[in-house]
Amino acid sequence: MRPIRPNHPLRRFFHGLVENVFASELGICNPEIVEYLAELLTDFIHVDRLHAVRDAEGRPLNQVADMLAMVVAAESADLSAAQRRGLVYRHIGDYTLFWSGVYPEALRARAVAHARDYLLNYVQQGKRSYALASELIHDDSVPPPALLRQLSDHFESCAYGLELVRREWEHDPSDNAVAYAALLY
Question: Residue 61 class from Cβ within 10 Å (0-12 exposed, 13-18 middle, 19+ buried)?
Answer without folding.
Answer: buried
